[in-house]
Amino acid sequence: MSHLNVEAYRAYFGPQHLPHARSPSLLTRKAGDYEISQGPSGVSRLRLLPGFLPQAEADWVFSKLFAELPWSQKTNFKQGGFDTVAEHGSAICSTALCQPHPSDPMAKRRGSWGAAVVVSMLSDSAFPALATLQNWQTNALDQGWATLVLECQSRFRISFCPSEAYEEPRLTCWYGELPYTYSHSTMQANPQWHPVLSDLRETVEQVSGHSFNSLLCNLYRDGKDSIAWHSDSEPSLGRHPIIASLSLGDTRCFSMRKNPAPEENGDYTYVERLRIPLGHGTLLLMEGATQEDWQHQVAKEYHDRGPRINLTFRTIYPEPPAGRAPRHGPRS
């Protein structure tokens, strides 16, 4: 097991006595198992396997999947802000996405907008009424994002505000017995695996020693397609999810950054960083606490890039109760 000691690497590049010296990005190309961090969440590990698929096989797989998968552009939602006040008692907040009902005559005017819902509990005795939220969604939209007051065992104050829709800058498709939700938008269950994908899953499972029941496929059409900083940390993926990422097509740089310590207040300026060029036929396994302690992205590039397919095998579980948010925010 190799250790990527970012602190020692930073000491080589700049004075150690500086309280905040920006960490350089470590560039990792060689095959191997890497322990990238240890912490309260556990050990974060990467396994990098360039040439996992031989060139000729990778070429054939890429051409088949590029032509035959049901690629589409997913619409996500950025949740707007809200403001609520609990007048007395304890406060419990819940968020939900409200989309226009198909029969809603206002749907066309609203377009692809959602609503953020916040409920301030004004009395402990009102908790059962939280279950009725979904029954109010369509009616609440008709109020023009106004603040409503419900009398249901006690008083709630409910604030609605628009959630802007946006299209992901890439194409995707989903395979698995269960639906998958991220960025307030759900990909429906699709148990009919393409035979090439079924064969790849079996091969990845044999090499990795892990089993997977789902697959998120991404198609980056050119260098302008991308995925923003995020972690694959949706509650449906369970604790310490294992992600097996197979790259096909043009090489793109896979960037990682460590989540900052609590005292940094969400500032990523000085965190540890990695860069991994993922070439045609390369398999990358993210294991342990990687999704808990690190984020990753594929940034836009402003020079010519050909298409790239990224297959991310994972294990998904039935969705937890509504209202539990992802640990590290939406992706775009």
Automatic annotation (TrEMBL):
Keyword NADP (UniProt): no
UniProt-listed PROSITE patterns: FE2OG_OXY (PS51471)
GO cellular component: mitochondrion; nucleoplasm
Catalysis: reaction(s): a 3,N(4)-etheno-2'-deoxycytidine in single-stranded DNA + 2-oxoglutarate + O2 + H2O = a 2'-deoxycytidine in single-stranded DNA + glyoxal + succinate + CO2; a methylated nucleobase within DNA + 2-oxoglutarate + O2 = a nucleobase within DNA + formaldehyde + succinate + CO2; an N(3)-methyl-2'-deoxycytidine in single-stranded DNA + 2-oxoglutarate + O2 = a 2'-deoxycytidine in single-stranded DNA + formaldehyde + succinate + CO2 + H(+); an N(1)-methyl-2'-deoxyadenosine in single-stranded DNA + 2-oxoglutarate + O2 = a 2'-deoxyadenosine in single-stranded DNA + formaldehyde + succinate + CO2 + H(+)
SUPFAM superfamilies in alphabetical order: Clavaminate synthase-like
Entry superkingdom: Eukaryota
UniProt cofactor(s): Fe(2+)
EC number, as in UniProt: 1.14.11.33, 1.14.11.54
Major subcellular site: cytoplasm
Domain spans labelled Fe2OG dioxygenase: 211-317
Keywords: Cytoplasm, Dioxygenase, DNA damage, DNA repair, Hydroxylation, Iron, Metal-binding, Nucleus, Oxidation, Oxidoreductase, Ubl conjugation
A Gene Ontology biological process term: DNA alkylation repair
MF terms in GO: broad specificity oxidative DNA demethylase activity; metal ion binding; mRNA N1-methyladenosine dioxygenase activity
InterPro entries: AlkB-like, AlkB-like_sf, ALKBH3, Oxoglu/Fe-dep_dioxygenase_dom
Subcellular localization(s) per the UniProt record: Cytoplasm; Nucleus
Gene3D superfamilies reported in the protein's UniProt record: Alpha-ketoglutarate-dependent dioxygenase AlkB-like
Family: Belongs to the alkB family.
Subunit structure: Interacts with the ASCC complex composed of ASCC1, ASCC2 and ASCC3. Interacts directly with ASCC3, and is thereby recruited to the ASCC complex. Interacts with OTUD4; the interaction is direct. Interacts with USP7 and USP9X.
Function: Dioxygenase that mediates demethylation of DNA and RNA containing 1-methyladenosine (m1A). Repairs alkylated DNA containing 1-methyladenosine (m1A) and 3-methylcytosine (m3C) by oxidative demethylation. Has a strong preference for single-stranded DNA. Able to process alkylated m3C within double-stranded regions via its interaction with ASCC3, which promotes DNA unwinding to generate single-stranded substrate needed for ALKBH3. Can repair exocyclic 3,N4-ethenocytosine adducs in single-stranded DNA. Also acts on RNA.
Protein known as: Alpha-ketoglutarate-dependent dioxygenase alkB homolog 3
Organism: Albula glossodonta (roundjaw bonefish)
Lineage: Eukaryota, Metazoa, Chordata, Craniata, Vertebrata
